[in-house]
Amino acid sequence: MNRRNHTNIYEFLLVGLSEWPQQQPLLFGLFLGMYLVTMVGNLLIILAIASDLHLHTPMYLLLANLSFSDIGFISTVIPKMLDNIGSGSKRISYGGCLTQLYFFGLFADLDNFLLAVMALDRYVAISHPLHYAMIMNYQRCVLLVAGSWVVTSFHALVHTFLVTRLSFCGPNIIPHFFCDLVPLLNLACSSTYVNDLVLILVAGTLLIGPFICILTSYFYIALAILRINSPNGKQRAFSNCTSHLSVVSLFYSTAIGVYLCPPSSPSGGKNRVFSIMYTVVTPMLNPFIYSLRNRDMKGALGKLLRRKTL
Questions:
Q1: Helix (H) or strand (E) holding 173
Q2: Is residue 132 a contact partner of residue 47, using CB atoms and an 8 Å limit?
Q3: CA-to-CA distance for 190 and 90, rounded, in angstroms?
């Protein structure tokens, strides 16, 4: 009897952003445009840094990795959403859901770690400018980036493996536009105690740790800027942080809105809006924020574009 009543689920249904048919062409065009802008913008950042020897420094190595992570981040979510809108289907296979879950966790965590390392880089550059080349040398920066990749890959793999241990036999509707971990756990028929424990202990530590690192770095950066006597020196020091600070504010404000604030309704409409902000809007805006606020990046992009047009 139990076997008859508990049928395993081999696919899920993603609610998406809207169930109104007349809104689907608008959503498709809007998100296709945002996806293309994000891809082109971040690829230009990577190519500009790779082609300009003056940008082969720790700061721009971190920026290139952040752009690559943003490409992976948005590519994990948007193509499947566009496919569902275009086909009129809301289905995603069990394997596809797990794949999306893994890569979403990987690139979300990687963004988090890279933003923390970039904050540490800015702290050293402003608070210890004479020792910057020695403290944040290229080898140490590569080690920090590689360590971020290893830790985030393992963390995403742990959550994905723990989900494979669960049974899904009831409702298969995910009130989201991608396979996020928490909505997926809510559909499980078996106990999610281990998943919840790992989510609180491990994920909490890995997410809050980099955030605390960012806050601490900017606290000491602010103290260092206040000790500068020259107004021009203060402005120059602060301008070195504005791009990174803008990205951090946008990323964390929307992510906190999703994962720390209680949902406004069972349908998760508010969560979907905030999720769009940090999964789609933030990766799209990052190239503009860094290129418009950074003289070296504007120069490198100008050289790259002139070289392509000749």
A1: strand 173-174
A2: no
A3: 24
